[in-house]
């Protein structure tokens, strides 16, 4: 009973209210499916491949962890804690995947691609923490959350939705169940750099998605569903590589008014790594200032005893910034894309409004 004593209201919410709500949602999906011929359970032959994909994803993560490091699990592993955690995670998994199966089945007659896309996004948003999303004001934290959580969750949701479309909830439960069991039962979890976590979490489910295409889709000459998945896979992989700097550049969201009128909140700039010796007065650079990245223009360059120092200032500011040592420079402006980041800002504001 001592495990339940601290924070009793929170424990009741996690181990009683939430699991029951998810199971009720799953029962509702089953009841609706009972009277809906579009949601039929059929043997797809993909349960074993789904389990194998989950096991491969866990295995690759474990191999990477042996090379790069493990971290302690945040979950309890006393017998009672394991039972309660499995109850919570299992109820969420079953209820969510029954709902996924019914949603994608009910919408597939209009358009399979639309059904998969809408269900994927909806169930993906359910897995994200609204609190974490609203805290992503720092670019480094944003990249970390994107790589460790958001993109892998999106890729897993896409694969799970397609599995549910092919054969029903057992297939998606099989794939996600392997990942869930590893996360909640292992006393050690991979502590990987976010680019590595992103690559594994995105690449494995997307490759699995391409491998489980049914024969009729794989043989379609054009407009087949396999083409949609191939495009989605390529786009997601490019997004991950682009954000990790594999292409030698990195996107930065402009926030604030310090660089107006040339740059406005919601613009996206592409920053390329640069040798500080190659910088000159007038260049716009990104540099680290405490816990934040700043994008300002160089107005003076000094050679001091400790090395090269840059004096910067925002175009809309009245005074220069504190001196910037060369080692704090992260890159030089390479490309400016006006308004490209506004959808993300609006989405964040929407989530914040809903949470409040």
Could you walk me through the main structural features you see in this protein, from its secondary elements to its overall organization?
The chain starts with 7 loop residues before the first helix and ends with a helix. It has 2 domains: 8-244, no CATH class; 250-355, Umud Fragment, subunit A (Ribbon). Helix content is 56%, strand content 15%. The chain is an alpha+beta fold and 356 residues long. The protein has 11 helices and 9 strands. β6 and β7 form a beta hairpin. The chain crosses the membrane at residues 15-34, 46-70, 76-94, 114-133, 195-212, 224-242. One of its GO terms (molecular function) is signal peptidase activity. Its main location: membrane.
Average pLDDT score: 81
Strand order of the largest sheet: 3-4-9-5-6-7-8
What low-confidence regions span 5 or more consecutive residues with pLDDT below 50?
1-5, 216-225
Distance between the termini: 34 Å
Beta-sheet strand percentage?
Answer: 5-15%
Helical proportion, percent range: 55-70%
Q: In this structure, how is the largest beta sheet organized?
A: 7 strands, antiparallel
Number of strands: 9
Shape: elongated
Radius of gyration: 24 Å
- List SSEs in N-to-C order: HHEHHHHHEHHHEEEEEEEH
Helical/strand content category: alpha+beta
- Classify the oligomer: single chain
Taken together, the total number of domains comes to 2
Total of helices: 11
Domain Peptidase S26: 228-295
GO molecular function: serine-type endopeptidase activity; signal peptidase activity
Pfam families: Peptidase_S26
Protein name: Signal peptidase I
